[in-house]
Design brief:
The chain is built from 8 helices and 7 strands, in the order E-H-E-H-E-H-E-H-E-H-E-H-H-H-E. It is an alpha/beta fold and 256 residues long.
């Protein structure tokens, strides 16, 4: 039920972190994956490492900046030319250029958060969905965050954008459902990635997160990847419009 053999997946922000873990898991499940992030060199290195383990041409590197609509169009076109139709799309790449209270964020910073974290997902899904609809088959996964479920005095704009991603998934699930195209979200908690480096590199900060997490630790990128495989496979065939929280229990803990 979790077999992805013969399927092609495009994963943004997949040269490292959660995106890379998803790519590795999908290749292990049989898929061919497109490794995509801003820098071609980083994509090439990740694809080479995956291919060294799983065999040549299981991972293909195609760089694209999510902030550029033409670059995303080129990503979709090149994927079609090299690998054929896209069966799975994982919108993982995101940004957060500001850390602090909402009162201090500049308009251009707020705009960048929304353009990269919401509008870019809308663009890319809009480019890929028509071919899925035509084939009456496809799975789209948006990597959101538990930030979209809680408030913050440090990353408020980021959290607002991630809440918007939840609604994007719900709306598109309604639109695409009649065509057998599923759209879901994953909401990671604190995971050992570059984005959360300030938390896990500081023992005091990491201990504070662990105290409010029932499992008593932060997550690892590979622990997010399984949900993406699940949602993309036949195992998740009757799931759409949903958001799976993967946070070690943080959001259900009172913190007291």
């Amino acid at each position: 039920m979790f077999d992805l053999t013969g399927r092609t997946a495009v994963i943004t922000g997949s040269s490292r972190g959660i995106g890379r873990a998803i790519a590795e898991a999908m290749v292990a499940a049989g898929a061919r994956v497109v490794i995509s992030s801003r820098k071609q060199e980083a994509c090439d290195a990740t694809a080479a490492e995956i291919n060294a383990i799983h065999g040549a041409d299981r991972a293909v590197a195609i760089a694209a900046s999510i902030s550029s609509k033409p670059a995303l169009e080129a990503l979709v076109a090149e994927t079609g030319d090299r690998l054929g139709p896209i069966d799975i799309l994982v919108c993982n790449a995101a940004t957060n250029p500001y850390y602090g209270p909402m009162s201090g964020i500049a308009d251009d910073q707020f705009r960048k958060v929304f353009e990269n974290n919401v509008l870019a997902n809308h663009w890319l899904i809009g480019m890929v969905a028509p071919q899925m609809i035509e084939r009456r088959a496809g799975a789209i996964v948006v990597v959101s965050s538990i930030g979209g479920l809680i408030g913050s005095d440090k990353i408020g704009a980021y959290n607002i954008s991630k809440a918007a991603d939840f609604q994007l998934v719900r709306n598109l699930a309604v639109e695409f459902g009649p065509h057998n195209v599923r759209v879901n979200a994953i909401a990671p908690g604190t995971v050992r990635t570059d984005f959360a480096r300030a938390l896990w590199e500081d023992p005091v900060a990491e201990a504070a997160v662990a105290r409010v997490t029932p499992l008593g630790r932060i997550g690892e990128p590979r622990e997010i990847a399984g949900a993406a495989v699940f949602l993309a496979s036949e195992a998740g065939g009757f799931i759409t419009g949903q958001s799976i929280v993967i946070d070690g229990g943080m959001t259900i803990h009172s913190g007291l």
